[in-house]
TrEMBL record:
UniProt GO molecular function: RNA binding
Protein name in the entry: KH domain-containing protein
Keyword terms of this UniProt record: RNA-binding
InterPro entries: KH_dom (IPR004087), KH_dom_type_1 (IPR004088), KH_dom_type_1_sf (IPR036612), KH_domain_protein_archaea (IPR019964), KH_PNO1_2nd (IPR055211)
Protein source organism: Natrinema salsiterrestre
Origin: domain of life: Archaea
Domain K Homology, first and last residues per copy: 1-81, 82-152
NCBIfam families: arCOG04150, PRK13763.1-4
Length: 182
């Protein structure tokens, strides 16, 4: 059994309407979730396939870091799917710097975050003081590198060029990204 702590305002998302999301996670990941809505603590107990069960805490953590449940469940699609978090707060000197860096990652109208998703194929969420990433290893690495470049003050144009380059690399290695539509 593993314990995961998630923010209070994400408990409702984890449970879902009438417990629907919680039941879906339990069925898909073959785990049992014991949610303490008072303090945000979630006990994740594996009840089926132990390999699938290992992804249970990651799914709960991903939802806690701002991902929609359907995006968090992508972690079960493939053994190689990863969930990673970039701590924006660690790169900031103070509250104002934190806001500025968060703004750089989001971009005008959310464009920078969207480009990270489009060009890598990973899901990217900025919530609180973190940037969460779900994707294949090379997708997660590309987003993490781009985020770190932005946090270090690199111009957006340079970061976009880097992402285009990574996109082309993945495309040429036969890892063409296609978002499933339907």
């Amino acid at each position: 059994m593993q314990h995961v702590k998630i923010p209070q305002d994400r408990i409702g998302v984890l449970i879902g309407e009438g417990g629907e999301t919680m039941r879906e996670i339990e069925a898909e990941a073959e785990v049992r979730l014991d949610i303490d809505s008072e303090n945000g603590s979630v006990a994740v107990d594996t009840v089926g396939d132990p390999v699938l069960g290992l992804k249970g805490p990651e799914i709960v953590r991903a939802i806690g870091r701002g991902f929609a449940p359907e995006d968090a469940l992508r972690l079960l699609e493939d053994d190689m799917m990863l969930f990673d978090v970039v701590d924006i707060d660690a790169a900031a000197r103070n509250k104002n710097d934190m806001k500025r860096k968060k703004g750089r990652l989001i971009g005008e109208g959310g464009r920078t975050r969207e480009l990270m998703e489009e060009l890598t194929g990973a899901d990217v969420v900025i919530y609180g003081s973190t940037l969460g990433i779900i994707g294949a290893p090379q997708e997660v690495d590309a987003v993490r590198s781009a985020a770190e470049m932005l946090l270090d003050g690199a111009p957006h144009g340079a970061v976009y060029s880097f992402l285009e380059e990574k996109h082309n690399e993945m495309k040429h290695k036969g890892m063409e990204y296609h978002r499933f539509s339907g």
